[in-house]
Amino acid sequence: MRDDKPVEEAAGSETPHDEASPPLRRRKAHIRESAEAHLLACAEAVFAERGFEGASTAMIAERAGVPKANVHYYFPTKLALYRRVLEDLFEDWHRAANTFEGTDDPVAAIGGYVRAKMELSRRRPLGSKVWANEIIHGAEHMADILEQRVKPWLDTRVTVIDDWIARGLLADVDAKALMYMIWATTQHYADFDAQIRALGGKRALSQKAFEATTDEVVQLVIRACGARSPDEDR
Amino acid sequence: MRDDKPVEEAAGSETPHDEASPPLRRRKAHIRESAEAHLLACAEAVFAERGFEGASTAMIAERAGVPKANVHYYFPTKLALYRRVLEDLFEDWHRAANTFEGTDDPVAAIGGYVRAKMELSRRRPLGSKVWANEIIHGAEHMADILEQRVKPWLDTRVTVIDDWIARGLLADVDAKALMYMIWATTQHYADFDAQIRALGGKRALSQKAFEATTDEVVQLVIRACGARSPDEDR
DNA sequence: GTCTATACACGGATAGAC
DNA sequence: GTCTATCCGTGTATAGAC
């Protein structure tokens, strides 16, 4: 019933019994881990479709194929479950954010970041919706994540961008306005996919079409900030 | 208590009475009109803060300063009220959309449209949130608006943009990708204001700062599509 | 047109058997 | 760890007095 990670049992018994029993501690820990992961995935989908208030624990339980009480066994409250989904999402966001580091070429860095964000929108659109929904409604359940994790990261990116501008590698843009444009545009393809489908004549979901769109977005952003590679002549 | 439109009474009596009574029909019609407008404004705020499912008729009634039952007197169901809010929002969106027409200069047309959308984000951020929330959750309550009103408008804009590209006034961009970038970026300042405030150090709400941001966004978009005025030399 | 009181369903959370 | 049954608050919507 659970299509999660394969079981990693038979890892050697830790609690020596006379019975040839499997390692109980580990087995129990794995059950919890696997059940939590499964519930988190189902919760993400329901929160994306209906929002925090609109989602009910009954819906999440039904999608997970377990009774309602099991949800409360693994996560004490609906809010705790929601919070875990948000933390999970931040980790994924943070991995994509790291593609921004590691190069001093603004075209490569910004273009790569846009691609990573587009890929995230394609791979995990439900998560993007949960995130967007939370911010639209005030972000009270992720204020600490924004303040302690996202803000420091953004501040370093602003420094890097301002440096590129000072060295003539970028047009004189407002760094934050640029970052917001990248976020808004890339996440639009996940969050507003219902509108895109309604306006685009049903397509925009095929892999090929999405890759073409990604290229378009990269070009738009690169042109928007007037990026030029460091080794290019002026 | 109601801070809506001023009463337009004393418009001449229609039902001749011996009493010097005011025109009853008109007076009643005005009461309804005014009460509906007031409820719509309060509903927009609550829907923006909590989403459709999260909003309760009790909250809307409380904000409007009326008993819960009055809400159901003017709007039969919560969904009917929500639907009216969405229709109202579309009308406002449509007015801003019209700034795109009327000129053949892509810099003026696109720049003006971006300004109009930014102004809409500043003037009615709650409405933008309701709209975004609805689309994120599947847009089932506004599928007809998207299909019959937004899509035809977008299609004509795509034609105009493609024509500009053919005449060398714009870089070879995907017209829809450009429009989505404009929508996403401008609406970001309304929908994600909680995040912007969390990341920007409290500001970004003053009138001056918003105008500066608007100029930045206009410049970013104009550069993104490589717009050139028709009378400019190459 | 406005209000109080209420019907009735659903939601989150818990108790306690297995 | 899993399940059934249930408590209790809240939500939408309505009845009916004023």
UniProtKB/TrEMBL annotation, chains A, B:
InterPro entries documented for this protein: Homeodomain-like_sf, HTH-type_TetR-like_transc_reg, HTH_TetR, Tet_transcr_reg_TetR-rel_C_sf, Tscrpt_reg_YcdC_C
PROSITE patterns on file: HTH_TETR_2
DNA-binding region residue numbers: 56-75
Chain spans, region Disordered: 1-25
Domain of life according to the entry: Bacteria
PANTHER family: HTH-TYPE TRANSCRIPTIONAL REGULATOR RUTR
Name under which the protein is recorded: TetR family transcriptional regulator
